Write a sequence for this structure.
């Protein structure tokens, strides 16, 4: 096993002084924040002292710090469970930039890479502070065999609502996280989420087997700086143009389909704003370039599917526009909450067209295909990848949904929904497009390598180029390959370099894994006979049951005219009492305008009555007592006074007070 140990430490926690660091010391040293946000310090203290903790913080509330800082205080290894591959890598990269050691395990890695990582964690304790892991990778036989040897001192469960079948993003593998408690007795668990109803919160506590002294911290989900609004319109393009013109600064426009990302991005550019499209169908280089330009402000508007935004830290987004409402309040709260994370004023707007309600109803009707469809799609997957019954466990395959559906003569939307339900059944996992960089390991050494190089001059030059760029590390384990740099050192085109690497792989000289940039489908259990597919009908019923109140809540939120404060409506859905008005949503602003109009009307009417009681006046002279902006309103009120019998016109055309007005009736 020692041959798998990576020979050097590229990242490490900076050496501490003799005095033990405090939580604030670590926050300032690694995150460069002067102080904790509200409730963070209390959560950090509870986790650091060994309590099981459920932390409920709003989107953008700084959940990561709530387990990362106490993990460093406790020392040893923190296992972090997170559902999205892209989020895993973002978190790992973020920690490494802060000088903190972290690694990730997910379906995009090969068995050799996973074996190497687990060996390092077990045999070299103290070198790695965080292990990020998708839930499906937690309790494989290999993981079970190694985790007992690791110095695990904290388990963090991110996006903890995924553990509940009543949540909006149920992942069956999350239910098995509690089994870690049997393997690691006494290790505390912290669960974190931004979207959980009371039913989901209780489910989290039960499923994770929280101890009796567990603590729950809940910061209000209210975002006092975020103005929510719904805009009914017959012309979404014109409505978007007004929104972008009215709100300066960085923006996100969420659209439901890949095709619309390109169409709406082109529209935004025609309006004179810099814009980029972002969706899972783009290459890694295209997505990375679009995201980088948007993060630094070169691109103002990102037009994206909901694949964009998770784990991206851009605090100064001023506007989030939804071309179409999200399928659930939970999803909308997370997506809209990407605006205003710097706590400055920001806007979240939903555009609602006349056909949207019918479209939502049709989509809801198709969201839960029957069992026969699930079996048919499962069989199609097995046939497509030629997976025999009983095999394929944890194997991953590049997956193009449109191409798959076309080849198997399946409807794309029905297939999408069927795959989603098969994921919720714990049978497979489908990630959006994830970039996995190329990796290389040289498999022969010493005299064998020298002999091979003597007989193959071109291959020898390439291997020498690899060693110049990466050093002896490439003998120990598969190493992320800097292909462009190696090709430049080798002195040949990148395409020719890759061809030679593939040849060396086929002849057993190296282990070469080309870069992969595609959606990834992973079989989470050995392939079943589709006719006897073990579908959990109770879970299917629960998902349908959960969808109904979500759909009702979405319809209520989009109702026009609104009947209550938008913030209050969202918080009520999450079970939070909010007996005030946010004062900045469209409903609150309309109410404020109504009150201001009523107060102004009362003041104008009082002035008119006062002037008429003093003496009859011609209407034109009467208007001289008012500001020009109030002339139309005062004229309208004067007509009302005449109609109500408080004023009348005399023979000269002057307006005079009647006895009714003089008597103050």
């Amino acid at each position: 096993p020692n041959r798998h140990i990576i020979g050097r430490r590229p990242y490490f926690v900076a050496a501490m002084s003799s005095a033990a660091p405090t939580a604030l010391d670590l926050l300032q040293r690694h995150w460069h924040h002067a102080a904790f946000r509200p409730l963070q310090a209390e959560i950090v203290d509870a986790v650091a002292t060994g309590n099981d903790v459920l932390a409920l913080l709003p989107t953008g509330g700084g959940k990561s710090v709530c387990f990362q800082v106490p993990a460093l205080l406790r020392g040893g290894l923190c296992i972090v469970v997170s559902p999205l591959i892209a989020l895993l890598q973002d978190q790992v990269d973020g920690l490494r930039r802060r000088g903190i050691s972290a690694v990730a395990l997910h379906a995009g890695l090969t068995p050799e890479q996973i074996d190497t990582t687990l060996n390092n964690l077990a045999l070299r304790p103290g070198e790695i502070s965080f292990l990020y892991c998708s839930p499906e990778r937690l309790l494989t036989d290999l993981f079970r065999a190694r985790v007992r040897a690791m110095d695990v001192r904290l388990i963090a469960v991110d996006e903890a609502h995924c553990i509940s079948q009543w949540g909006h993003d149920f992942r069956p593998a999350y239910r098995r996280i509690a089994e870690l408690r049997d393997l690691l007795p006494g290790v505390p668990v912290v669960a974190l989420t931004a979207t959980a109803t009371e039913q989901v919160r209780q489910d989290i506590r039960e499923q994770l087997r929280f101890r009796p002294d567990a603590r729950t911290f809940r910061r209000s989900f209210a975002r006092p700086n975020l103005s929510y609004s719904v805009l009914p319109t017959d012309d979404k393009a014109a409505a978007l143009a007004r929104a972008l013109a009215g709100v300066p600064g960085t923006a996100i426009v969420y659209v439901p389909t890949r095709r619309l990302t390109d169409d709406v991005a082109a529209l935004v550019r025609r309006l004179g704003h810099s814009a980029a499209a972002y969706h899972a169908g783009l290459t890694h280089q295209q997505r990375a370039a679009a995201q980088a330009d948007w993060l630094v402000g070169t691109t103002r508007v990102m037009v994206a599917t909901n694949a964009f935004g998770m784990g991206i830290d851009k605090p100064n987004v001023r506007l989030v526009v939804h071309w179409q409402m999200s399928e659930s309040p939970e999803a909308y709260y997370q997506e809209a909450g990407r605006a205003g994370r710097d706590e400055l004023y920001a806007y979240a707007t939903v555009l609602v067209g006349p056909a949207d309600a019918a479209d939502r109803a049709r989509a809801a009707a198709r969201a839960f295909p029957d069992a026969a469809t699930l079996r048919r799609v499962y069989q199609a997957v097995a046939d497509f990848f030629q997976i025999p019954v009983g095999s394929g466990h944890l194997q991953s395959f590049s997956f193009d949904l449109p191409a798959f559906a076309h080849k198997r003569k399946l409807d794309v939307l029905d297939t999408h929904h069927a795959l989603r339900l098969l994921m919720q059944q714990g049978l497979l996992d489908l990630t959006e497009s994830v970039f996995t960089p190329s990796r290389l390991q040289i498999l022969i050494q010493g005299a064998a390598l020298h002999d091979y190089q003597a007989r193959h001059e071109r291959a020898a030059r390439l291997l020498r180029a690899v060693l110049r760029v990466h050093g002896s590390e490439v003998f120990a384990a598969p190493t992320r390959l800097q292909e462009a740099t190696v090709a430049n050192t080798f002195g040949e085109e990148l395409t020719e370099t890759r061809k030679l690497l593939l040849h060396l792989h086929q002849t057993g000289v190296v282990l070469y894994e080309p870069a992969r940039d595609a959606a990834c489908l992973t079989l989470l259990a050995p392939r079943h006979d589709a006719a006897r597919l073990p579908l959990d009908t109770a879970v299917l019923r629960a998902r349908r049951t959960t969808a109904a109140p979500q759909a009702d809540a979405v319809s209520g939120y989009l109702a026009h005219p609104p009947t209550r404060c938008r913030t209050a409506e969202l918080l009520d859905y999450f079970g939070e009492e909010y007996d005030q008005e946010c004062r900045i949503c469209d409903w609150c602003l309309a109410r404020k305008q109504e009150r201001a109009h009523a107060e102004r009307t009362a003041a104008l009417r009082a002035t008119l009555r006062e002037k008429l009681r003093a003496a009859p006046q011609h209407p034109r002279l009467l208007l001289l007592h008012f500001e020009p902006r109030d002339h139309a309103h005062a004229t309208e009120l004067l007509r009302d006074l005449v109609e109500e019998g408080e004023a009348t016109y005399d023979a000269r055309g002057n307006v005079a007070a009647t006895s009714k007005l003089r008597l103050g009736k």
User: Anything to note?
Assistant: The mean pLDDT is 88. Residues 393 and 526 are 4 Å apart (CA to CA). The chain is about 45% helix and 15% strand. The longest helix spans residues 586-614.
